[in-house]
Amino acid sequence: MVGHNYDGQNIPPQFDLLLGANLWDTVIIEKASITRNKEIIHVPLQDFVQICLVNTGNGTPFITAIELRTLKNDIYVTESGSLERYLRRDLGSNTIYRYPVDIYDRFWFTRDFQEDWTNLSASIPDDSFNQGDYQLRAIIMSTAVRPANDSAPLVISWEPQDETDEFYVYMHFTEIQELTTNQTRQFNIMRNGELWIPNFSPRYLFVDTLYVSGKEIKYSLVRTGNSTLPPIISALEIYTVIDLQKPQTLQGDVDAITSIKSVYGVKSDWQGDPCAPAAHLWDGLNCTYGDNEFPRITTLNLSSSGLSGKIDPSVSMLTMLEKLNLEKNNLSGSIPSALVEKSEEGSLTLSVGQNPYLCESGQCKETKKKNTVIPIVASICGVLLILLIAVAILLWTLKRRKRKVRITNKFNTIVGKGGFGTVYLGYIDDTPVAVKMFSPSSLHGYRQFQAEVKTLMRVHHANLTSLFGYCNEGDYKGLIYEYMANGDLQEHLS
């Protein structure tokens, strides 16, 4: 996490971090330039993990990234609780390592400088190195620290944040020097002044991990009288034990309420566990809580929530529900029988008023019959109307085509040639007319046709042939003139 001025208040944010139903930690960002990493080794009780950031009124919560990694079941085992990283150090190194150097993507930080420690390093190939149960690569274990004074103990200590804190301490050792026959490295490991591990000697090119739990905060590696070399240690991990055993909402209730949220698109701030912790249960819910029992949803209030459609079956899956308020929505259909039965038994207070399309039990069948007849009749009438319109259009088109053919007697008598087509003799109500039809082969015929129509429709003169009408439909294009019984101008000129 890297702090930014998200809310414009220029105040370093502070918020709670929840893991499931439990408070993991309170995150405090002192400066925008400081990165905060929170790491925990946790065994979930269910098949999912919920991480929630809770606004406590001290700035807007934020997160940059979430990463999940799996570990083997036989390492970092605790009697109870989860392990929050207090520190992890690659001792003697100046480089920070993570994946792919570490198969589990553990962050190995460099140690804080201490004047009474001296760094050691060696070149160790991976192919000849035994990584041990905790899978520590040679590049991490090839460095170590020893006391600056060969005869002095190597002391590891820290200051706990709370005197009640309990720790798990993991010490990783390997001998990085190939000792000669007259060299010996042996030391006792003391815990708060008491002997814990006597006469310990790290093995060459092999990782030995020693771990212990408790409230002890001071460990000393003390050289024995038989040792010719000072004590060393290559890597160190310290974890704080956190009790995250508060149960989460029963899985069946979680599945049901999550389905309700999805079906209706509930806009409320429904995030994280529905019931736990109790201080942050979802809006509109009430839950029951018992010692070492899963919380159960007993009240669901979704009144005035803009719900529409049928009452989803998942509501009935909330088997401990005592109060259900669905008033003032747009729900429709029948109330599920399971809810009706519980309401009649008196185990459920059911409120569904002001849903105009929601049927009471026993009233939906008659309404359904009436409602289904109307759409069927409307559909049949609509289809018939469309068919009638189509038949009328077809008859009208055929009539017009037949009339065009009858006017000219199937284009039987040619009386002349025009600029864009042939002129035929025709009759309208026994009155002779001249019909000039457009010829597609005419080079400029269509333009001449358009020009002639526009001109004769606007200009009327005693010396010009009268225009009775024209046709411009698809391939049928023609003009209908007054018939000149004495022939055309070309005949008289010739």
Note the main attributes of this structure:
494 residues; alpha+beta; Jelly Rolls; Leucine-rich repeat, LRR (right-handed beta-alpha superhelix); six-stranded mixed β-sheet; five-stranded antiparallel β-sheet; 27 strands; repeat
Fold topology:
Layout: E1 14-19, E2 22-28, E3 40-41, E4 51-58, E5 82-90, E6 109-110, E7 117-121, H1 138-141, E8 143-147, E9 154-157, E10 167-173, E11 187-191, E12 194-200, E13 208-214, E14 218-223, E15 235-242, H2 251-264, E16 285-288, E17 296-301, E18 308-309, E19 323-325, E20 330-334, H3 337-345, E21 349-351, E22 357-359, H4 364-407, E23 414-417, E24 422-428, E25 431-437, H5 445-458, E26 467-473, E27 476-482, H6 489-493
Parallel strand pairs: 5-6, 17-19, 18-20, 19-21, 20-22
Antiparallel strand pairs: 1-2, 1-4, 3-5, 5-15, 7-8, 9-14, 10-13, 10-15, 11-12, 11-14, 16-17, 23-24, 24-25, 25-27, 26-27
Structure description:
It is an enzyme of class 2 (transferase). It is found in: Membrane. Pfam families: LRR_1, Malectin_like, PK_Tyr_Ser-Thr. It catalyses: L-threonyl-[protein] + ATP = O-phospho-L-threonyl-[protein] + ADP + H(+); L-seryl-[protein] + ATP = O-phospho-L-seryl-[protein] + ADP + H(+). GO terms for molecular function: ATP binding; protein kinase activity. This protein is α+β, with helices and mostly antiparallel strands and 494 residues long. It has 4 domains: 174 residues, Jelly Rolls (Sandwich), CATH 2.60.120; 112 residues, Alpha-Beta Horseshoe (Leucine-rich repeat, LRR (right-handed beta-alpha superhelix)); 40 residues; 80 residues, Phosphorylase Kinase, domain 1 (2-Layer Sandwich). Helix content is 18%, strand content 30%. A hairpin with a 2-residue loop joins strand 1 and strand 2. About 1% of the residues have low confidence.
